[in-house]
Amino acid sequence: MTGSPGFTPDTVLRGMSLRRRVGLVLLGLAGGCGAGLLLLLWLTEPDPLPLRTRAAFAVLTAMSTCWAAYALWALIRMPLFAADRVIAGGLALVFTSLTAVVTLIVAVSRPGAVALAALTTALLTVVAAASVLRRALVRRKALLERLSDPAG
Fold first, then answer.
1. Which end of the chain has fewer CB atoms within 10 angstroms, the N or the C?
2. pLDDT tens track of the chain, all 152 residues?
3. Longest CA–CA separation in the chain, Å
4. Distance between CA atoms of residues 74 and 21, nearest Å
5. Angle between helices 51-76 and 18-43 (to 10 degrees)
6. Residue 1's Cα: distance from chain center in Å?
7. Angle 83-109/113-148 helices, nearest 10 degrees?
């Protein structure tokens, strides 16, 4: 036994491919820039915004901040047993579901072909996010079973 920890920077970075690291950096930049731009736009409005607009800005800023925080968290820790993918899938499912609910409200208040197309797209993104989450859960379960398998 040594007094030094078992995880060195090389050990941690070896566990994550370059493609995944670049993707997380891009996700973090997109989330951070999105949140920053929304806040700047919101704070520099000369007149007070309507309540619905302020609520939309707050929700979109929170979503962007969550994605940036997730990317930072995934980059600074060693991704063990696909937990990071389960969290990303959960965030995607929650955010696409919220978007679909808002789209449904708008589609009901303004019926038409455009509203129907927007609602269809929103529902397809919810299905895609649910699929991503399911795949992540299956992968995590398989990795945990391999860990607990004494022959593995």
1. N
2. 455 555 555 554 456 788 888 999 999 999 999 999 999 999 999 899 999 999 999 999 999 999 999 999 998 886 667 888 999 999 999 999 999 999 999 888 888 888 889 999 999 999 999 999 999 999 999 888 887 876 65
3. 69
4. 9
5. 150
6. 39
7. 160
